[in-house]
Structure formats: C-alpha cells, structure tokens
C-alpha cells in the first residue's frame, strides 16, 4: 500500500471527537451517556433563519456561490461588525468560509511559511496548533495560568516573540476555559503588538455574545484601531445562533490578506452553500433579543456547574467570564484509584475512567495544552448537567 503523507504524523485526531466517538459506542450498547464533550448549543436554529433558507431554495438560489460569499450575506456581516464591534469593513475586506475553522485555516495558509512561529495562548482550542502545523508553521504556546484567570499576560506574550514570529492567535472568551479579557487587558496585549509591526493577529471571536455578570466583550481591532490593518477578526453563526450544522463562518480583515484567503479557499472548497448563507444573513439581520436570553440561560448553567464541581472532592473549578465551558483542576484526584480499580495518574486517565464508570463524557485538559484539567461543556440541558455533576461528585467520592 502506498504511504500516507508524513504531515499526518503531526496531526492526531481531535480529543473531543475521540471522546464523542467513545460515548456513542457506549450509547450504541444501550448505555445512557451524558456527553459534556462537545461545544454545541442545545438550542434550536432561529425560525427566521430556517424560513430564509427555505425561501432561498424555493426561488432557485441553488447554484454555485461566489467564493468569498454572497453579497447579501457580506452586507449582513458588514452591518454586524458595525453594530456589535464598532468595526467598518468594505465588502472586499469580508469573506465567508465553511465554518470559522476554514476561515482560520485560510488565514494561516495565506500568511505562514515553513518554520514561521505562531503564538498561541494556552490552554487553547485543540485545532489551533494542528492547523499551524498543517500550514508548515511552528506553534509556540504561552501559558495563561489559572491564577491570572487563564488570561494572557502581556509580559509573557512579549517574552515569546522572536524574529520568527509571524502570527498571534487570540481567542477570548476562550475555548476551553471561558476566560475573557477586559478592555484594559486587551489594550495591554495590543500595546505589545504595536511594538512588533511585522506580526499578523488572528482573533477568533466565536463566543463574543456569551459573556456574563455584566462583562463587556471587546475585540483587539476595536480596542486598538492601529492594529486593524493586520488583524483578521473571525466570527460565525454556529455558537451565537445555534447553527453549527449550517457551517457558516466569516471574517473581516485587510483587503490584500482577505483576497489571499479567498484564493486559498478557492483551491480547497470554493464557495459556501447558498442555502446556508441565506440562513446566516437572516440570523445576523433578524431579532437579537433571544441572544441575550440564551446567554442568561448559559449563565445559570455555568453557576450550577461551578458550584457542583467545587463540591466534588479533589476538584477546584474557576468561574469563567464567558463561552460555555469550565476548565476544572483535578489535581486532588491524581494518584488515586477508582471504585472500578483504575489508577488515576493523568487527566486523560480521569476522563476515560469517568466515562467508563459513570458514563459522563468530558475531554482531558492535556488535549488543550494544560494539565491536570478537564474541559466540560455546559451547552446542554440543566437537568442533564445536574445529573452529570452528581455523577462526577460520586466518582470523586469513590476515589481511594
């Protein structure tokens, strides 16, 4: 059999996907599993978006789309950036991708040369480092410690920059920690970047509307306009509008870079489903009240999960500002043995034993660049969360 590409050795399967597959295998055997491993809203897509998609299909809007997105959606994105972020982008400074992940990959392919370094605050979304490697770059992780709320300290960012640094990856509110940066904290990061004019900035703002306790979201190009001409601001409809399956992400950025990103997309996938784009435009332009209503529900879920996890022996859980994840520390559970006889030496051991013995799926922190932690998604029903946290408490109480 011919050999597969060597690059695959650098890109293992996503840990969250692996845990989801394991959970489904148990479910196929008739075992009830509560999955807290996937970051997918449990709400429905807005009716207006579904109606717009249906109308688009009926009127024959089913042909090849423009590679950079339909004009109707790009105009809706333009209005969204003005409304939510105080950012003005011309239509040729906006592009649409097959989910936010493709937009991020387009950007990395457009700016990274072999050996270029990309700074990634850690813990980080699993895919960031793998995408950098696929683009030929070198991921350089910068630890964001729990005692700083999992936020990036400007002095740590400064220390990580080298002559090979090509790109800074930002994601606040964060997956997996839910950490968010205040305007002052974002300005401190911006001040560092102003001293290094040859570095691009990629800001993944997928969780911008999921912030709690009066916290105000900000994005770096808004906070520091002098960085706008080298910042790509990425967003999408998956999280805010519960449209994960529609696969629509988008960005605003410098014209020449966006043009290069569209070129990359043209070689990989071409344009995005016209039906999905019609739905996304309707979501962006439609009523926004329910966005805040859903955020209030997420806040209540966050509070429940944090409280219950902090009652589990050996676990301490930081209360995050945003997103729909918590990232509890399980250091107090290491070196112990489960009721089923499994020795817990790592956070991966903990996650696997929890799934097998208590049927709760989570993802181990090492997959996100920091141990010993777990990522727990609370984007699921309140009663399921309550039951899952009760099982986690029972699991921890059974450790000896």
What would you say this structure looks like, in words?
The chain is of the alpha/beta class and 400 residues long. It has 2 domains: 6-44 and 290-397, Aspartate Aminotransferase, domain 1 (Alpha-Beta Complex); 47-285, Type I PLP-dependent aspartate aminotransferase-like (Major domain) (Aspartate Aminotransferase, domain 2). Helices cover 40% and strands 13% of the residues. The strands form 4 sheets. A 7-stranded mixed β-sheet has the order 2-8-7-6-5-3-4, sandwiched between helices. Strands 9-14-13 form a 3-stranded antiparallel β-sheet. Helix 11 runs parallel beside helix 13. The chain is globular.
Outline:
By secondary structure, the protein is an alpha/beta fold.
């Amino acid at each position: 059999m011919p050999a597969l590409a060597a690059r695959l050795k650098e890109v293992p399967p996503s840990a969250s996907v692996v845990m989801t597959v394991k959970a489904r295998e148990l479910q196929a055997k008739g075992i009830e599993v509560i999955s807290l491993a996937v970051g997918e809203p449990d709400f429905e897509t807005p009716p207006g978006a579904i109606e717009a998609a249906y109308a688009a299909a009926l009127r024959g809007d089913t042909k090849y789309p423009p590679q950079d997105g339909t004009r109707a959606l790009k105009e809706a994105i333009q209005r969204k950036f003005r409304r939510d972020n105080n950012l003005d982008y011309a239509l040729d400074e906006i592009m649409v991708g097959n989910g936010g992940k493709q937009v991020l990959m387009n950007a990395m392919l457009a700016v990274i040369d072999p050996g270029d370094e990309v700074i990634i605050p850690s813990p980080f979304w699993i895919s960031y480092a793998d995408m950098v490697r696929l683009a030929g770059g070198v991921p350089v992780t910068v630890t964001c410690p729990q005692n700083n709320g999992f936020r990036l300290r400007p002095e740590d960012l400064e220390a990580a920059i080298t002559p090979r640094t090509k790109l800074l990856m930002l994601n606040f509110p964060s997956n997996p920690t839910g950490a968010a940066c205040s305007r002052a904290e974002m300005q401190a990061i911006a001040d560092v970047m102003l001293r290094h004019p040859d570095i691009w900035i990629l800001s993944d703002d997928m969780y911008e509307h999921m912030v709690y306790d009066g916290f105000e979201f900000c994005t770096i190009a808004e906070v520091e306009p002098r960085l706008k001409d080298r910042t790509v601001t990425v967003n999408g409809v998956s999280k805010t509008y519960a449209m994960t399956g529609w696969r629509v992400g988008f960005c605003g950025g410098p014209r020449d870079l966006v043009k290069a990103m569209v070129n990359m997309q043209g070689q990989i996938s071409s344009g995005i489903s016209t039906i999905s784009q019609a739905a996304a435009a309707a979501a962006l332009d439609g009523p926004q009240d329910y966005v805040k209503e859903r955020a209030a529900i997420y806040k209540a879920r966050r509070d429940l999960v944090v409280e219950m996890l902090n009652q589990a022996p050996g676990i301490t859980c930081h209360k995050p500002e945003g997103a729909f994840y918590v990232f509890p520390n399980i250091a107090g559970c290491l070196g112990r043995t489960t009721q089923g006889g499994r020795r817990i030496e790592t956070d991966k051991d903990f996650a696997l034993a929890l799934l097998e013995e208590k049927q709760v799926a989570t993802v181990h922190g090492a997959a996100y660049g920091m141990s010993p932690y777990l990522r727990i998604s609370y984007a699921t029903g309140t009663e399921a969360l309550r039951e899952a946290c009760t099982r986690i408490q029972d699991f921890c109480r059974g450790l000896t």
